[in-house]
Automatic annotation (TrEMBL):
Organism (species): Microbacterium radiodurans
GO annotation (BP), single: carbohydrate catabolic process
Domain named Mandelate racemase/muconate lactonizing enzyme C-terminal: residues: 128-267
Gene Ontology MF terms: magnesium ion binding; mannonate dehydratase activity
Protein name: D-galactonate dehydratase family protein
One Pfam family recorded for the sequence: MR_MLE_N
Classification lineage: Bacteria, Bacillati, Actinomycetota, Actinomycetes, Micrococcales
NCBIfam families assigned to the protein according to its UniProt record, in alphabetical order: ManoateDhtManD (NF043051), PRK15072.1 (NF011654)
Length: 412
């Protein structure tokens, strides 16, 4: 068979999503996620103007060859726009291959290595009572592991606090990770690292006192600390036995993680903004991290992320794939299939999409007693309702940004 058409579908049910739908000459369809939070239309243009014309008439069965052609053939490699576009093609071709074979994608990747994927949810609160309520709510939903984000005294609005209210479509959904907010300009938030470092250990002490030693707790520093500040936080949090400390310092400065490692035994997770194995190569080889946070959507698809995780397995480093609401249900399905098949799975981030998103993307995954499973429908197990998607046109949206107390723009 050959590829007959490739359509780029942009929809905004609860937030903006970019989906590539490939159709073969025999009418078999495959979906891929190309969503790049806050910069969606850049990927749309890359796909429509540069990638789709190359796909028409191509052999849909040649997944690896197509990936290498799109990556190497452009000469200008890497970057989030390029890799999100290639990822969408890669996912869609795996989806098609699974449908033709009559098998779920995880079977094509070697079969299941486990019965389900332990996932973590996002709990938050401006103050402790609100945070405790959020943790209990997540436990009632079945989560066995929980990320803890907290407000900081004197700061009005910071990353990851649902009570601050993200401007999203479905008011029944609690968002502990901000989608890009709809509007003509990004929202400005404030930040004070010293206040954060002084406040956070007491929060985890209170959480452990309330919920006990057994529940796996995670925390996201979101790139906002210098290396020595990150080292201090990791050391200060050691008594509370974190599952991981995520993005403790800007990951572009990979040598900085060596300094953090020298000062703390708190496990480190890095990589949600990485795009290729080259971003991970040295920090995996030097064992400076414990979990690979790459996303199928932003790492070029299932094919290259599997290779990255196979490399990480050589160093006893596990997966912790990115999975907030800016990964579409298609991207989440791809992550589940990959996570189910690899041996060195660690944990899967999982945030529930809104009702309208679930109506646009019809999904086959299950969520049972804290574990995800992609289901056994052939392919990825997600179908796109194009008519429903058409009811929600793209809306301009931006992620927030940070300023320090003196007005300096800081890492968000």
């Amino acid at each position: 068979m050959t590829i007959d058409r490739a359509d780029v579908v942009v929809t905004s049910p609860d937030r903006n999503f970019v989906t590539l739908k490939i159709t073969t000459a025999d009418g078999v369809t495959g979906l891929g996620d190309a969503t790049l939070n806050g910069r969606e239309l850049a990927v749309v243009a890359y796909l429509r103007e540069h990638v789709v014309p190359l796909l028409i008439g191509a052999d849909e069965s040649r997944i690896e060859d197509t990936w290498q052609f799109l990556y190497r053939g452009a000469y200008w490699r890497r970057g989030p726009v390029t890799m999100a576009a290639i990822a969408a093609v890669d996912m869609a071709l795996w989806d098609i291959k699974g449908k033709i074979a009559g098998m779920p994608v995880y079977q094509l990747l070697g079969g299941a290595s486990r019965n389900g994927l332990m996932a973590y949810g996002h709990a938050s609160g401006k103050e402790l009572p609100e945070l405790f309520d959020s943790i209990r709510a997540h436990q009632e939903q079945g989560y066995k592991a929980i990320r803890v984000q907290t407000g900081v005294p004197t700061l009005k609005a910071i990353y990851g606090i649902a009570a601050q209210g993200a401007d999203v479509g479905d008011a029944t959904v609690r968002y502990d990770h901000e989608p890009a907010r709809r509007g003509a300009k990004p929202v400005e938030e404030d930040w004070d690292t010293r206040a954060y470092l002084n406040h956070l250990p007491a929060v985890f002490e209170a959480v452990r006192s309330e919920f006990g030693p057994d529940i796996p707790l995670l925390h996201d520093g979101h790139h906002r600390m210098t290396p020595i500040q990150a080292a201090r936080l990791g050391k200060d949090l050691e008594p509370y036995d974190l599952f991981w400390l995520e993005d403790c310092t800007p990951a572009e400065n990979q040598e900085a993680l060596r300094l953090v490692r020298q000062h703390t035994t708190t496990p480190l997770a890095i990589g949600e903004i990485f795009n290729t194995v080259w971003d991970f190569k040295d920090i995996i080889r030097d064992q400076l991290i414990d979990y690979v946070r790459g996303a199928v959507t932003h790492m070029g698809g299932i094919s290259p992320l599997k290779k990255t995780l196979d490399y990480a397995a050589m160093y006893q480093i596990k997966s912790g794939m990115h999975g907030p609401t800016d990964i579409s249900p298609v991207g989440m399905a791809a992550a589940m299939h990959l996570g189910l098949s690899i041996h060195n799975f660690g944990i899967q981030e999982y945030m529930r999409h809104g009702r309208r998103t679930d109506e646009v993307f019809q999904q086959s995954f299950t969520w049972t007693d804290g574990y995800l499973h992609p289901g056994d429908k052939p392919g990825l197990g997600v179908e796109l309702d194009v008519d429903e998607a058409g009811r929600y046109p793209y809306e301009q949206a931006y992620l927030p940004y940070n300023r320090l107390l003196d007005g300096t723009v800081h890492d968000w």
